């Protein structure tokens, strides 16, 4: 079904329409300096398409919350834990409710973490709920920056990964990304490059004009026109809009943002006693005397500095004995291992992101009052990979298992658990895990991704995969001198079944 969204007027007073079905397959990038009309354009798009498709708006300033009054969007306040936002996002996809993720009031790093958790929950939804969703991200340069800023590397990587999944891999999951940015130079290139439709507004910097002209297939001399665009005017290009650059004037909207551009208002009439109002202290100021800071001490003279350097150093004082009992490392490690086992006892744990699991882990450590500092995120990722295997005592103490642990340290965090599970099966002679088991350990529902991961291991010489005459899979580890028993690759997730039987 073809749905034409009226965006305004094109050249020659011809209506400029946007093919909604084509947009869902090809994504959209909107660029323009502050005041160029980006938010107005997004509001027009959302209002016109609201009756036809589910919508999700990532709103850093809370401007789009007014859509709830007329179009029924549910406003999700982002002042929640990351695990809560992930679960809410999954239910949003399940029940097909249009939402506005309101990030107002959070600092930049908290906004990045909240947006990453919410987008991750929508991306990881079950295949049965992969309905079309228009995902609009305003101020996308905040969530997919081209370079690191004042936020932590962890928050930047989480947010950038979520935005990359949205724009690069979201189409097959029904997620159509619409991102808006003030400056193309500040937006990560791998995120911007995935859009096939463009609406370029007013911009002044040469680097942004050059990138805009390059995306639209225009010559550099034509880039000067972006300086002359009025507010609400854009140059459009893409399979959902026009095959050639098309000037578009965005039409009117039905709702208004909570924050508007400042308008000139006449100054109040100057009172006759303005000097007395400014230079005379009020009664409240007299009752609250101003506190003056004492002047800083004068800098020491050169002789005083030389005398200080020539003084002998005082002997280091012995540290007083701590009034608190020393931390029993063995008991602390056992508590952490118990929390890891409890954390992985949840059947959905394999499909939750590492960031969400780590936040849950920290909360459980505080509840259990585990002494000392909790493990940092890199150490937690390593513990998570080992805890998902949980070999028996005989296997854990063997030289082969220690060698397998050393080999796994050369791999990335997301595949260590899969490698260790197969290595444990080889050392114990157990059947090769099925594709369903490997996919769950890899954090996906796709069996084909699990098979590609085995091919990736094999290309690096870590293992050898072969099939017997019954098409059962056997995985051999040359460095460990061990191999698994034959296992059905199409079988069920036996690790889940065994865990349920044990419980």
Please give a quick description of this structure:
The chain contains 20 helices and 14 strands.
Written description of the protein model:
The protein has 503 residues and is an alpha/beta fold. The protein has 3 domains: 4-250, P-loop containing nucleotide triphosphate hydrolases (Rossmann fold), CATH 3.40.50; 330-387; 391-503, Orthogonal Bundle (Arc Repressor Mutant, subunit A). The chain contains 20 helices and 14 strands. The strands form 2 sheets. It has an 11-stranded mixed sheet.
Which terms summarize this structure?
503 residues; alpha/beta; Rossmann fold; Arc Repressor Mutant, subunit A; 3 domains; 11-stranded mixed β-sheet; 3-stranded antiparallel β-sheet; 20 helices; globular; disordered C terminus
CATH topology of the largest domain: Rossmann fold
**The first-level CATH class name of the largest domain:** Alpha Beta
Which stretches of 5+ consecutive residues score pLDDT under 50? 497-503
Distance between the termini: 50 Å
């Amino acid at each position: 079904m073809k749905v034409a969204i009226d965006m305004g007027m094109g050249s020659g007073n011809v209506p400029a329409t946007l093919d909604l079905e084509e947009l869902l397959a090809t994504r959209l990038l909107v660029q323009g300096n502050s005041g160029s009309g980006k938010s107005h354009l997004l509001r027009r798009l959302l209002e016109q398409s609201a009756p036809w498709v589910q919508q999700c708006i990532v709103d850093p300033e809370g401007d789009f919350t007014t859509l709830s009054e007329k179009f029924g969007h549910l406003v999700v306040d982002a002042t929640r834990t990351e695990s809560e936002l992930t679960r809410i996002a999954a239910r949003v996809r399940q029940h097909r409710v249009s939402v506005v993720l309101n990030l107002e009031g959070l600092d930049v790093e908290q906004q990045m973490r909240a947006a990453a958790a919410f987008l991750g929950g929508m991306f990881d939804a079950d295949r049965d709920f992969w309905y079309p969703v228009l995902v609009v991200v305003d101020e996308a340069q905040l969530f997919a920056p081209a370079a690191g800023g004042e936020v932590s590397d962890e928050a930047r990587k989480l947010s950038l990964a979520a935005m990359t999944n949205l724009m690069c891999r979201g189409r097959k999951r029904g997620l159509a990304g619409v991102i808006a940015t003030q400056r193309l130079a500040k937006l990560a290139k791998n995120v911007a490059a995935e859009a096939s439709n463009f609406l370029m507004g007013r911009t002044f910097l040469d680097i942004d004009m050059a990138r805009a002209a390059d995306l639209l297939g225009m010559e550099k001399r034509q880039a000067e026109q972006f300086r002359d665009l009025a507010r609400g005017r854009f140059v459009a290009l893409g399979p959902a809009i026009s095959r050639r650059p098309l000037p578009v004037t965005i039409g009117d909207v039905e709702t208004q943002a909570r924050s508007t551009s400042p308008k000139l208002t006449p100054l109040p009439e100057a009172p006759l006693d303005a000097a007395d109002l400014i230079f005379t202290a009020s009664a409240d100021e007299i009752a609250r005397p101003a506190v003056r800071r004492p002047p800083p001490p004068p800098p020491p003279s050169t002789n005083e500095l030389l005398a200080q350097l020539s003084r002998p150093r005082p002997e280091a004082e012995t540290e007083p004995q701590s009034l608190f009992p020393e931390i029993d490392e063995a008991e602390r490690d056992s508590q952490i291992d118990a929390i890891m086992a409890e954390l992985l006892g949840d059947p959905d744990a394999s499909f939750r992101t590492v960031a969400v699991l780590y936040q849950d882990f920290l909360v459980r450590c505080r509840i259990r009052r585990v002494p000392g500092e909790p493990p940092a995120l890199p150490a937690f990722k390593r513990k998570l990979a080992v805890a998902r295997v949980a070999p028996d005592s005989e296997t854990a103490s063997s030289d082969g298992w220690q060698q397998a642990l050393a080999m796994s340290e050369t791999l990335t965090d997301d595949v260590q658990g899969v490698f260790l599970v197969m290595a444990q099966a080889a050392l114990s002679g157990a059947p090769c895990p099925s594709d369903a088991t490997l996919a769950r350990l890899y954090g996906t529902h796709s069996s084909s991704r699990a098979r590609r991961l085995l091919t990736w291991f094999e290309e690096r010489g870590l293992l050898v995969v072969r099939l017997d005459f019954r098409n059962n899979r056997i995985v051999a580890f040359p460095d460990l001198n061990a191999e698994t028993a034959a296992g059905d690759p199409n079988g069920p997730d036996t690790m889940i079944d065994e865990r349920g039987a044990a419980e």
